[in-house]
UniProtKB/TrEMBL annotation:
<dbReference type="GO" id="GO:0005524">
    <property type="term" value="F:ATP binding"/>
</dbReference>
<dbReference type="InterPro" id="IPR051782">
    <property type="entry name" value="ABC_Transporter_VariousFunc"/>
</dbReference>
<dbReference type="InterPro" id="IPR027417">
    <property type="entry name" value="P-loop_NTPase"/>
</dbReference>
<keyword id="KW-0813">Transport</keyword>
<dbReference type="InterPro" id="IPR003439">
    <property type="entry name" value="ABC_transporter-like_ATP-bd"/>
</dbReference>
<keyword id="KW-1003">Cell membrane</keyword>
<keyword id="KW-0547">Nucleotide-binding</keyword>
<keyword id="KW-0067">ATP-binding</keyword>
<dbReference type="Pfam" id="PF00005">
    <property type="entry name" value="ABC_tran"/>
</dbReference>
<dbReference type="GO" id="GO:0016887">
    <property type="term" value="F:ATP hydrolysis activity"/>
</dbReference>
<feature type="domain" description="ABC transporter">
    <location>
        <begin position="7"/>
        <end position="239"/>
    </location>
</feature>
<protein>
    <submittedName>
        <fullName>ABC transporter ATP-binding protein</fullName>
    </submittedName>
</protein>
<keyword id="KW-0472">Membrane</keyword>
<dbReference type="InterPro" id="IPR003593">
    <property type="entry name" value="AAA+_ATPase"/>
</dbReference>
Amino acid sequence: MKKQYALAFDNVSKQFKSRHKTVEAMRNVSLTVEDGEVFGFVGPNGAGKSTTIKVMLDIINDYDGQVRIYGVDAHHAHARKGVAYVPESPALYEQFTPLEILRMALDMYGIRRTDANAWCMQWLERFSVAGNAKRRIRELSKGNVQRVALAHALVVQPRLLILDEPLSGLDPVGRKDVVDILAEYKRAGGAIFFTSHVLHDVERIADRFGFIHQGQLLTVRSPQELAKERAGRYLVRYQGNATDQRAVGTIRNGEFEIELPEAELPAFISQLHANGSHLLSVKPAVSLESVFFQILQSTPV
Ligand SMILES: Nc1ncnc2c1ncn2[C@@H]1O[C@H](COP(=O)(O)OP(=O)(O)OP(=O)(O)O)[C@@H](O)[C@H]1O
């Protein structure tokens, strides 16, 4: 029997044409996400991440290739049965309360529960916004709106959750809470497709990462493969002169950061001392962005 994927992109291309130029937002993208898998879609601004999501949601429907959600062509609305989506900046009805919004989600998905109110409150509590359950959305902070939007997605217990930059707008505590909830959802068998242009806490729950650049899926890697690529690389922070072209900008006035392989550390540190700079810290490089740039450098686009 043919395997049924949560998501299957087959050779998908999308161009935006204007009078002056053509942008290839997706170029022959093929990828699959298994049921229960967490797939991180990573790429810089303008890489094609939102376009990919809009294709899944059929907001963009004039593309080449085929997209299937649980085996159903994404052009059909019923492909999105059991699929929930949270955009980067959720636009929830401002005049409603979080509790009303979650109740509406249950109605929209045709979910009837005798304990509907308690069930919704449970999800608002889970996202630490139960105290705001009866205030209007327009009175809530951006971070709390984001939490309500995530609760609104999970209250219907989707089998696939599509998240555009899920942690943007959340403080560190909020990010940890959300990642814990998503990890729980994954343990219960849920699949997630999330986009990110900066990687952070959410990467710990991903099973695989796809790297997109200029509409092209460059590679798909597991966290284990990425960890191997990061091994032996260090992030050096120092104060003083930008002694090396590779330093990635000022962190604060006069502070710099550079990523180096272990073999180059001693020479670099001696050079810092020699020109009067001060070493602030040396830590193993853990940023997925740095791996992304390595992939970019080693992949002909
Ligand atoms: N409606 C549109 N008309 C014309 N060009 C578009 C349109 N939507 C997207 N693009 C272009 O397609 C490319 C991919 O855009 P997309 O929004 O998918 O990138 P992204 O990876 O989501 O970026 P970001 O991280 O900034 O949200 C960009 O060059 C963008 O300018």
